[in-house]
Design brief:
heterodimer, A: about 375 residues, alpha+beta, Gyrase A, domain 2, Alpha-Beta Plaits, five-stranded mixed β-sheet, 13 helices, about 35% helix, B: alpha/beta, Rossmann fold, 2 domains, about 30% helix, binds iron/sulfur cluster
């Protein structure tokens, strides 16, 4: 803040001087007022008001109200000025609280969660905000145990694989790897890093808050598809939308994706499954859902047929347990010797040994049964 | 007026390497400071094409498709998903000559300069030659050497073959390599019989694909007989039928590709010189932020 001169442009002006300049256009922000009239300057904060100030008296009057001045200065000189980034950074520090309270909280560091991200905002000397970003589950981790990043563009590479090194095609799947921290970011860099982990979420969250999220519902989205995905259009047969409920339940539940699904079957026809509690919205079926729907479209063109299997009650229950375990991503957690769990590997192998024929048919019943055609 | 570069690429739900070239070229261009803002978007990854333009701050956006040829993606999918009112005729292309056109997307208040794909830009010819140099570790490679430029064939896209042929012709005209051939995966002349098409002892094979994946790492190496199972890798060079085959892998991973992206944007009017505006703190600080 030192070494400022009266000449413009000043890359790092004094906050009080900057406020005095801005007073010509009028300032009314977070409880701070500054205006310029024929008789001089006016300055006010919630518990004090000054009128008819000379230019130098204006600067004197700001003393004691640095928290307000520096708060205004940060939001108008340092924070990125595009609407969505600005709104997101404001949201992080809960801007409804009075400035002195907020400043105290920021001095200690204040946190917000965004999907599996944990943002910590704090102020340094002069009211500038700095941010740390890490995995929510690393909230209490010793920074020395985390890999430290400063380039926000690293985020889009970190998000590519989960903790086991497996590729994550859906950035908002709740499988973000732990073990990293973005340390001491400026506001612009914080926004970039968050967008690197969860692309376009800040923009769409902001649009939603402003009441202009452009939701594209299922039917509209699949109607737009061409090429190999054009076939999905044939899945909507005007016979209800159970199939779309099943898609949403399979792919979009909070256990699978942290976006809050805002799209429905169409404008008039809501789905019967919850959209989730995520903080940021999903505005249309994503490419993963469309690609998966293509497979289901082809499978669902088949007619159901009757098969006859002889299974013990335990075996039937076991098949259900195996499907549940896979669907809930639980297979890794089943203990080696826990044979009480139907999806235990030994149990599954025994069932296969007993009930599959050499061609892998359950109970020797062929999948294709020509007589049933 | 700030300008942004948006690199649009295919991406994949299965192969994490698919988006690596777009990411690497974006990072290289970011480091060079030629653009205020650089973003990527993907058909199969995120941000999606549909959400891409709203992630851009600048008002002027240069959209460069990281695709090898003109066709379904550049003419239909990308403009539709970016919400551009675009007709393939706007490019007035013969299949390899798409340049750029300026359009207004319907979901954001910006101007989009929609460029032809990197694969058909003239500068791509240099990238293929560079690839031959790097795979052979010889900056003067050419004399006594054959070069095969490999693509899909017309089964998928008629223009795919045109792009391959176009660059093969341009390289042949330079009289640098003894022989230059365009070969294809699913039509004649086929890459399977690569040695049938060359007399030179050494043959450099450069596949015109953006990303390494099944086609470049398994299909083509196995078809040529470099290996029985591409997942285990292959030797460079591999000796086949008395020829040394120098197989280069996907051209899209070549660092020089970043220059082709830049040239596409420059052709469309982007100011891509390293900016020299003293006192313009905005550009400097944006660049310092790695933006
Ligand atoms: S469509 Fe479903 S799975 Fe895809 S991003 Fe939206 S909520 Fe998530």
């Amino acid at each position: 803040m030192s070494g400022t001169t009266a000449t413009d442009p000043d890359p790092d002006p004094d906050p009080a001087e900057a406020l005095r300049t801005a007073a010509a256009d009028g300032v009314d922000f977070d409880g701070l007022e500054a205006t310029r009239h024929d008789d001089g300057f006016h300055l006010a904060v919630p518990d004090a008001s000054y009128d008819d100030l000379s230019a130098s008296a204006f600067l004197d009057a700001t003393r004691g109200h640095e928290a307000y001045v520096e708060n205004w200065f940060f939001w108008h000189q340092h924070a990125p000025q595009d609407d969505a980034s600005w709104a997101f950074l404001r949201w992080i520090e809960r801007p409804d609280d009075p400035v002195p309270e907020r400043c105290e909280r920021l001095a200690d560091g204040t946190t917000r969660e965004w999907g599996q991200l944990l943002v910590e905002a704090r102020t340094d000397e002069g009211g500038q905000r700095r941010y740390d970003l890490r995995h929510v589950d690393d909230a209490d981790a010793d920074v020395a145990t985390l890999s430290v990043h400063t380039d926000p563009t690293d985020a889009r590479r970190i998000r590519k694989t989960d903790g086991n090194g497996r590729y994550r095609p859906l950035s908002t799947a709740p499988t973000l790897a732990r073990g990293w921290i973005f340390d001491d970011l400026d506001p612009t860099a914080l926004v970039r890093a968050v967008e690197g982990f969860y692309p376009a979420t800040i923009q769409n969250w902001h649009r939603e808050r402003a009441g202009d999220l452009d939701v594209a519902h299922w039917h509209e989205t699949i109607s737009r598809q061409t090429g190999i995905y054009g076939v999905v259009q044939t899945w909507d047969r005007g016979e209800g939308h159970d199939h779309v409920n099943w898609v949403a339940e399979a792919c979009c539940a909070d256990s699978q994706c942290l976006k809050r699904r805002e799209w429905e079957y169409d404008e008039e026809t809501p789905l019967n499954v919850p959209g989730g509690d995520g903080v940021f919205p999903c505005r249309e079926p994503c490419s993963l859902v469309i690609a998966t729907a293509r497979r289901w479209t082809r499978m669902e063109a088949e007619q159901a047929r009757t098969y006859e299997f002889d299974l013990t009650p335990s075996e039937k229950a076991q098949i259900e347990a195996i499907i549940d375990a896979v669907a809930d991503g639980r297979t890794d957690e089943i203990r080696e010797a826990d044979t009480s769990d139907g999806a235990n590997r030994y149990r599954a192998r025994y069932l296969r040994a007993k009930r599959f024929d050499d061609a892998g048919n359950l109970c020797g019943v062929p999948t294709e049964n020509d007589e049933a055609e | 007026m700030s300008e942004a570069l948006l690199i649009v690429a295919h991406g994949s739900h299965l192969n994490p390497q698919s988006s690596t070239p777009a990411q690497d070229h974006a990072d290289a261009l970011r480091a060079s400071g030629r653009f205020d803002e650089i973003r990527e978007a993907y058909w199969k990854e995120e941000p999606s094409f549909r959400n891409a333009l709203r992630t851009v701050t600048a008002d002027e956006v240069y959209v460069v498709p990281l695709f090898v040829s003109e066709g379904y993606f550049t003419e239909q999918v990308i403009p539709r998903e970016l919400r551009l009112d675009f007709e393939a005729a706007d490019w007035d292309s013969d299949g390899t000559s798409a340049d750029h056109t300026t359009l207004e997307p319907t979901d954001v208040d910006k101007r989009v300069h929609y460029c032809g794909p990197v694969g058909t830009h003239d500068a791509m010819t240099d990238v293929i030659v560079r690839r031959a140099e790097t795979v052979t570790s010889n900056d003067d490679v050419g004399a006594g050497v054959g070069l095969a430029v490999v693509g899909h064939g017309t089964k998928r896209n008629e223009n795919s073959a045109k792009a391959i042929q176009y660059h093969a012709d341009r390289i042949r005209d330079r009289d640098r390599f003894d022989e230059v051939r365009a070969l294809f995966m699913d039509e004649d002349p086929e890459v399977d019989d690569v040695t049938d098409h060359f007399e030179s002892d050494d043959v450099v094979v450069v596949p015109l694909f953006i990303a390494d994946g099944y086609h470049t790492q398994e299909d083509i190496p196995e078809d040529m007989g470099l290996t029985d199972d591409g997942r285990g890798g292959y030797e460079v060079p591999t000796r086949i039928d008395g020829h040394d085959i120098w197989y280069a892998g996907a051209i899209g991973t070549e660092p020089l590709m970043a220059d082709v992206v830049l040239e596409r944007a420059a052709d469309a009017g982007a100011d891509v010189d390293a900016p020299e505006t003293p006192g313009d703190g905005a550009i400097d600080s944006a660049r310092a932020d790695g933006d």
